[in-house]
Amino acid sequence: MTPKKTYIHDYCTIENNEIVLNGTSIFKAEPTTFGDFSKQAYRNFDIQYPKFFKMDALSKLAFLGAELLLSPITSSEKENNIALILANNSSSLDTDVKYQESISDKENYFPSPAVFVYTLPNICLGEISIRHQLKSENSFFIFDAFNTEFMSHYANILLDSDKADSVLCGWVEFFDDNYKAFLCTISKEENTKYKNQTIKTLYNK
Amino acid sequence: MEALKEELKNKIITTLNLEDITLEDIHDNDPLFGDGLGLDSIDALELIVILDKDYGIKLVDPKEGKTIFQSIETMAAYIQANRTK
């Protein structure tokens, strides 16, 4: 059986204090920390989700990208069969280091449960799933660099086998206040916007 | 006691990252969980850490938390009666 063609629908890039949606800059802040930038972005898009402020930086980064791509296509009225496939290089190391620092002094040993719960990279998938009420397949991979062929192949398998109606996939890297997120939505529904583009060409734009 | 309550409110806002909540939003007898401040199970664990770290109180039985963390009023009363620092 010939696999059915799949199409990129929307994509979003977050880096250097700027959010770009489908090639257009939609939010830019003056140079600042990611914590401040993410808070400004949350306010700018009028997101109503106080749990955002409890998330670690990696989850905030993934959440913001997913919010822009999934909010227009998800509904609380129906099941949203959207698979999530994300990857990065540093795993949850940024939060791991913070947690380790909180337990390194035996005389002042007060590990924070709220930090500990983010010491796995796939927690950001859970945050996105809770927000958009997804019960679909999700996976998080650690790569040296964004493996676009793998991502594209995995997304196509999920769509061809009807495991998902759409796939949100991409790269969400965060360590020591250096970050880049690239997320896109893919489905079998025809879309000619990016017919000559691939995940790789959009990521490298 | 009033100073302790205000101190607790400040600690809760800061430690639990309650970004959109101000001191005035937290009333002494409001429930901290459920319909009140809407804290969750991880927040409950953070409150146990606050008791230990800032007031020298180790909760031996976590079930006690249900009574202690009902409100700022109950939390302050428990701390005042049991604090070691």
From TrEMBL, chain A:
Organism: Flavobacterium geliluteum
Protein name: 3-oxoacyl-ACP synthase
Superkingdom as given in the UniProt entry: Bacteria
Automatic annotation (TrEMBL), chain B:
Pfam families per the UniProt record, alphabetical: PP-binding (PF00550)
InterPro entries: ACP-like_sf, PP-bd_ACP
Domain Carrier: 1-83
Protein name per UniProt: Acyl carrier protein
